[in-house]
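Hi there. Long-time user, first ticket. I'm pasting a complex I've been working with (about 168 residues overall). I'd like to know whether the download I got is complete or cut off, because the file seemed smaller than I expected. Thanks.
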Amino acid sequence: MRSKPLLLLDVDGVLNPSRRSSLRYRRHTCVVDGGLYKLLLDKRHGPLLLSLARETDAELVWATTWEEHANVEIAPRVGLPRLPVIQVTGDPVSSAGEHFKTRAVADYVNGRPFAWFDDGLGAADHDYLRAHEGVGDFLLVDVDARHGLDAGHLAQVREWLTRTAGAS
Ligand SMILES: [Mg+2]
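Hi, the file is complete. Here it is re-exported in full:
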């Protein structure tokens, strides 16, 4: 049986771009652990991601330093339900240049194919994942932090999952 693919989702630079690249984005503020955060969020993102997950029979999972706060502060504002959270903080030292989140992701995926929407990954992350036991097929979707997630990124993942992971 094919294992259900994962769609890994970052917040800053993906759902919350650094610029207001379109009028669809609305400004929000929230307080987390005493810190004030300003957000730009597009409420269409949730429905689009849920459609992608449904069409490809995949599971959406947070891969963000927001961790559980993403379920409280981000999900309701973009139209997503509560999602599973990969614990990514607590191990900031990198030996080979990979992002600290990449090690947490490698330990989490357990052979399941995954596509990862993030603005901070590069060749070191790709190499780390390729070499890591228990990591199967994956696609790193490089989102430009200035513009955030767009339809092209979603189409890229839809096409990849349809082709390589056997989704129909
Ligand atoms: Mg980011």
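A couple of notes from our side: The CA atoms of residues 32 and 104 lie 22 Å apart. The chain has a mean pLDDT of 93.
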